[in-house]
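Q: How do we represent a protein-ligand complex in a form that can be generated token by token?
A: Start from the inputs.
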Amino acid sequence: MIHLRTPAEIEKIATGGRIIGRLFASLGDRIVPGVDTETIDGWVRDFVYSHEGATAAFKGLYGFPAHACISVNEEIVHGIPKAEQVLGEGDIVTVDVGVKLDGWYSDSAFTFRVGEVDAETQRLLDCTQRALAAAIEAAVPGNHVGDLGAAVMESLEGENLGIIRDLVGHGIGRELHEEPQIPNVGRAGFGPKLRAGMVVAIEPMIALGTDQIRTLDDRWTVVTADGTRSAHFEHTVAITQDGPQILTGAPSEAEASVESV
Ligand code: MG
Ligand code: MG
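Then emit the structure tokens for the protein with magnesium ion bound:
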């Protein structure tokens, strides 16, 4: 079933979500050549657990062994952090983090550049962020789930990129993964109707080459079938009468200064 949340419940999800927003804001400068993905996982753990009551929701979920899913270059999602995976100049690395706070989940992912990236990689990052923004813009009451996928497709028209269709976004709240599924391809006007109070994780995953995927022998890491690079940006978003509300953003300067008082 699809749950509708009250404004107070949405604010609780946002309280956890802002932890991820601040975490990602703090990671940009630290993700540099020579850093390994297990170290990044440690930064995620330390940051999340420095907030009273907050836990890293992926740890142990379905048996996942780390605090964050960390995926490098051709790895799309569910990468397992490891000390021997050292980032090099020009790599890209996706950090996907879930926070559970007070019984409510939030979920967000960001693909970081390691040093300077080539123009094709930058195009991939720009297009994927634009796809997420387009889908969020379509997340308004009265639209349908298919409008989000349609918005992703439309935003990428003519770019010749692979939209990963075997992996989807999801409703989120008391559980990390709730109904409805949020595919990154769709037809406007189709699928469940969006209503005020729905909270969804929107997460386009886009590849430079094929949209086909495979899973590595570790049974977690999903990679592009042709080995081309992929990017992944995700926000937890509330659908409200006033429009889409991003719950996993970093607080604005004003809010941040209030918080630090
Ligand atoms: Mg995620
Ligand atoms: Mg998600």
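The longest helix spans residues 7-27. The pocket of magnesium ion (ligand 1) is lined by residues 96, 107, 109, 203, 234 (CB under 6 Å).
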